[in-house]
Amino acid sequence: MAGAVSTLYSQHDRAALLESRQATRENPWVKGSILVVALSFFAVFLLLPLLVVFVEALAKGWGTYLDALTEPDALSAIWLTLGAAAISVPLNLVFGVAAAWAITRFEFRGKQLLITLIDLPFSVSPVVAGLIYVLVFSNHGWFGPWLSAHDIKIIFAIPGIVLATVFVTVPFIARELIPLMQAQGREEEEAAVVLGARGWQVFWHVTLPNIRWALLYGVILSNARAMGEFGAVSVVSGHIRGETNTLPLHVEILYNEYNFAAAFAVASLLAMLALLTLVVKSWVEWRAQRD
After folding, report:
1. Dihedral angle of Cα 164, 162, 171, 132, to the nearest 10 degrees
2. pTM of the shown model
3. In this predicted model, what pLDDT tens digit does every residue of 226-240 receive, in sequence order?
């Protein structure tokens, strides 16, 4: 996964080393051309659309903007989005640490299969993931009769949204930790064990301090994905206004109803959450480089 915290500092060092040598230094015009292409692409395809979202959101004034964010369906979508992220991210935190620990510290049958399964949400369309949950947990699915008999509703309800969010965010924390823990090796942990530390003491005082920035980086990415997920959540939500609509789904409904000002207002809230994520991400990268 690009942008892993563990490799940022070494990449910066290698780039500085290459620039310092005459033989590997690029001509200024080549360097300038690459920068112009990259910045132009960024401005046209990323910065400009983001700016348009805020301009359209405020096109009818602050009153309309605030009304769009404070009406009951919007508030319900905000709380559901935050709630789904608040449940799915801690679950993925536990799973990511456990999976990374097992893969980097133990040899066992099915290890490669576990690595492949971690990457599965990257290769499977979120819509397909949502359909799988419908097939398994809907009233006519595999467990539908049993769930109905026990008055448990998963599809078209909040549990289904949480399940879909967990699925799409599974890889982010584990994939940040695995390369870092493989590079660090087991020497420090083995030394702590030799000195008499127990398992949890080794984890809290040796392993966790070494992986804390990569762990935080993975949590940030996982949280951003959870709040912005559309495809899988759309399939399992049922689009019930005020009950099962997350922020992305609420934006889609408003846009389809030609309520553009409200749609862009809610979209701007998602954009601000994304920008906040980028700020926190940059701070984590900066602290990781300092350490």
Report:
1. -20
2. 0.81
3. 998 898 999 998 888
